[in-house]
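F.,

This is the one I mentioned.
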């Protein structure tokens, strides 16, 4: 984030809601899950697609990790163990370093950072140990824990009620347009994030915080 923002960032602390996938971390399920499929299977894409199509149930907390792993291994026709499935499911992430630089600066300037993510019990709490940078986020709204998936309005209302947020003073970053649209309905200041154009986010953030400065 440009150093010219320092005064603005430190003078008017705000609350930030951050998505995880393709905002803080990029991910690739398909390449990782492909390692579990026997070599005898020539076309594994339909099998992986079938597994991922049921991912919402895991992320909503309506199915437990062990049941999902055992079912997925059957679909993938894999001889792997559940532990090997968990490992493959976890090894999908790469850090989006430009956003983490932004996170560190926001934290240093007394902004409050909250995670709001569609995520599951295989990734959590593992992800927070694997990526200690998540300690910058003091609060979390995780779909599998609250039993609600984005873009349902209820998950955003949960965040508002749980952390007593003023949506007009809350900045929400997500890579999924339908999630952003839900956030906008509840009055958040929203940015539809593009992992390939981080600078656009920083430009928007500078302008947004400058506007807040002029009209607190």
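My design for it:
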């Amino acid at each position: 984030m440009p150093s010219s923002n320092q005064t603005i960032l430190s003078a008017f602390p705000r609350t930030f809601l951050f998505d995880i996938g393709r905002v803080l971390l990029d991910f690739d399920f398909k390449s990782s899950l492909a390692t579990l499929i026997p070599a005898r299977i020539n076309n594994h894409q339909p099998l992986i697609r079938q597994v991922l199509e049921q991912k919402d149930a895991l992320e909503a907390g309506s199915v437990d990790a062990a049941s999902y792993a055992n079912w997925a291994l059957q679909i993938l026709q894999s001889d792997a163990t559940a532990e090997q499935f968990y490992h493959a499911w976890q090894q999908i992430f790469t850090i989006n370093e430009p956003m983490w630089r932004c996170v560190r600066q926001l934290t240093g300037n007394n902004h409050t950072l909250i995670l709001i993510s569609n995520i599951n019990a295989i990734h959590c709490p593992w992800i927070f140990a694997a990526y200690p940078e998540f300690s910058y986020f003091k609060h979390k709204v995780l779909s599998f824990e609250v039993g609600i998936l984005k873009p349902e309005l209820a998950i955003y209302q949960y965040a508002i009620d749980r952390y007593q947020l003023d949506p007009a003073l809350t900045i929400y970053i997500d890579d999924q347009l339908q999630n952003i649209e839900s956030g906008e309905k509840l009055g958040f200041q929203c940015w539809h994030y593009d992992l390939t154009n981080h600078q656009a986010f920083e430009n928007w953030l500078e302008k947004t915080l400058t506007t807040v400065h002029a009209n607190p």
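The CA atoms of residues 156 and 183 lie 7 Å apart.

Talk soon.
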